[in-house]
UniProtKB/TrEMBL annotation:
<dbReference type="InterPro" id="IPR029058">
    <property type="entry name" value="AB_hydrolase_fold"/>
</dbReference>
<feature type="domain" description="Thioesterase TesA-like">
    <location>
        <begin position="31"/>
        <end position="258"/>
    </location>
</feature>
<dbReference type="Pfam" id="PF00975">
    <property type="entry name" value="Thioesterase"/>
</dbReference>
<dbReference type="InterPro" id="IPR020802">
    <property type="entry name" value="TesA-like"/>
</dbReference>
<protein>
    <recommendedName>
        <fullName>Thioesterase TesA-like domain-containing protein</fullName>
    </recommendedName>
</protein>
<dbReference type="InterPro" id="IPR001031">
    <property type="entry name" value="Thioesterase"/>
</dbReference>
Length: 294
């Protein structure tokens, strides 16, 4: 392994990520997807049936999701871990990267590091990813994020979850499990250790994301935002020296992954990858008529 290649990955002995070949074959360059704050590939699964049959698709599970390894605590370490997994699957580029929410920040960091190692990164897609802002991330705010993330993964919205009692209980892990079950977000049979493990990973990832300060990057970046989310194009342009394009899809941060919105999201990703073969076409939005580009 060259010095540049080693620099793009993680030190020997670091936790390893699990790679899932959601669709291993196809004529297009593979799309590699680091996970969001949950650390799971669940968000990527609907794309299997919606992207063209010739689009290979791989996703990563985070170290710590299985409860064996300890969660990593920085975006830099996470990016290095996923780069090691990526290289085990495909030793050299070109690499297409796409990440949702916090996963977009990881994809961006992966692109920075891979490009610095001499690899070709034709496109990095950030799906509803905001540029991180300084935030201490209190235990209460992170727990609220966790409960709402669990709700969002199930197609539900909980605008105001009364979780303060979690911190008043002798066993906060058991109280959090009970709260999720009472809100019908998890079955009563769910193990308290599973909930505690997922929360520890979520908390570590949240702190990593809030502390991340992106480096400058000269490659091509595409932002895909839910229509209810803030357009962060100008924010990302403060760190991106290369071209930054923007697309909008229906829904909010979570509902964009559920029918009927996920079909438009998949179309957006397909259009972006297809646009790599037609650099004269600048894709900035998905119009009402999918057969037309704006």
């Amino acid at each position: 392994m060259s010095d540049a290649t080693a620099a793009a990955g993680t030190p020997s002995g670091s936790p390893q990520a699990t790679v899932t070949a959601i669709r291993p074959g196809g004529s297009r360059p593979a799309l590699f997807c680091p996970p969001p704050v949950s650390g799971s590939i669940y968000w990527c699964m609907p794309l299997h049936r919606l992207l063209p049959a010739d689009q290979p698709l791989y996703a990563f599970d985070a170290p710590g999701l299985d409860g064996v390894a300890e969660p990593l605590t920085t975006i830099s370490d996470l990016a290095g871990c996923y780069i090691e997994a990526l290289r085990r699957t495909q030793p050299h580029g070109p690499y297409l990267l796409a990440g949702y929410s916090m996963g977009g920040a990881i994809a961006y960091e992966m692109a920075v590091r891979l490009a610095s190692a001499g690899e070709a990164i034709p496109l990095t897609i950030l799906i509803d990813t905001a540029l991180p802002e300084p935030d201490p991330g209190t235990e209460l705010s992170i727990t609220k994020r966790f409960v709402n993330d669990v709700a969002g993964a199930r197609g539900r919205t909980l605008d105001d979850v009364a979780i303060e009692s979690v911190f008043e209980a002798p066993n906060a892990d058991e109280r959090l499990r009970s709260l999720l079950c009472a809100a019908d977000l998890m079955p009563e049979s769910v193990d308290v250790e599973l909930v505690a493990r997922r929360y520890r990973l979520f908390r570590a990832n949240t702190h990593a994301y809030l502390a991340y300060r992106p480096s400058r990057y000269r490659g091509r970046v595409a932002l895909v935002n839910a229509e209810s989310s803030r357009n962060t194009t100008e924010e990302w342009r403060t760190v991106c020296d290369g071209p930054v394009t923007h697309m909008t899809v229906p829904g909010d941060h979570h509902s964009m992954w559920f029918p009927p919105h996920v079909e438009r999201l998949a179309l957006s990703l397909d259009m972006l990858v297809a646009s790599l073969h037609d650099q004269s076409t600048l894709v900035t939005a998905v119009p009402d008529d999918p057969g037309t580009r704006v």
